[in-house]
Amino acid sequence: MANSKLYKGSLVTIILKLLNESDKMYGYEITQKVKELTKGELKITEGALYPALHKLEAEGLLEVEVKKVDNRLRKYYKLTEKGNKETVSKLQELQDYIKTMQVLVNPKLSLE
Amino acid sequence: MVKLEEEDIEFIDNYLENSEIFYADIRMEMTDHVASEIELLMDSDQTEFYDTFKSYMLSNKSILLDNNKRYIRGADKSILRRLWVELVKLPTLLVFSLIFFISYKWLSTIEVESLRHYMALFPVVSIVPFCTVYVVALKMFKLPRFSGIERLAFLYMFCFQLLNFMSSFSGLYIQSRSNFYIVAIVMSIIATLSLLIIKITIMIINQYRKNYKYIKS
Fold first, then answer.
1. For the structural domain made of A4-111, what CATH number should be given?
2. Residue numbers in chain B where pLDDT is lower than 70
């Protein structure tokens, strides 16, 4: 992941936000979507993505569905009801963090 | 967009299995990821499957093997997290209290000191039910090697050592009738933990049967 230290703490929020915007996604699709949205600035490695997905699954925030697609089995992830609630709270948390950082980094801009 | 043939997918799967990525659930997801990446590379570079695969593996194999270890550690953590979640639930506390009450009543009717010789057997006896559930379920449902199921052995080992320690510890305290409480508490912890492990084993096996019904052993 680019600028890994800064982005690492937001990985879960990024995953939840993307899943919130689509019905279901698989691992590789998430990495490509992030790459596309950030124009290649942020690249999520599989070593960071899959453990995060498995952790969210174990916590009951995601449910999985395995389907046969393109000659192979594919594991799709989608948000549970608990996951939807967690997404709202994580996004709020991230927005508050960005606002606070904005105040610290660029006080003039944040007052406008 | 290039789509890999079934034999190409099988080739990737076999390659990963021969590279000691044994667990079917981890390998399934990794195969899909590698296949998707190879399809993209074949599309952009206009290359054939074997050349693309070879070049991909040259630069990514060590990362994949490292990730495999990471996923296995994740499976262990997930099992321990489940145990913790179950431990702090109200029904667990109620079961513990009930077993404690029954144990205490039972201990008051027997000669407690005679128990000292049998305390060491408690962990062995308590491990039998969940090992039976595990083996019977695997035989009955003919499941392949799944990380979440196979790593339950790690939980069994951990709990067996814990129960063994507790039994040895409580054995030292069985000297008079005043030690009812300690013995009853140890017996309740052993029984509650054993029941929880059986519950977790059944939950995990059922989850894999539901989510991975397409994967055959």
1. 1.10.10.10
2. 112, 116-117, 171-179, 216-217
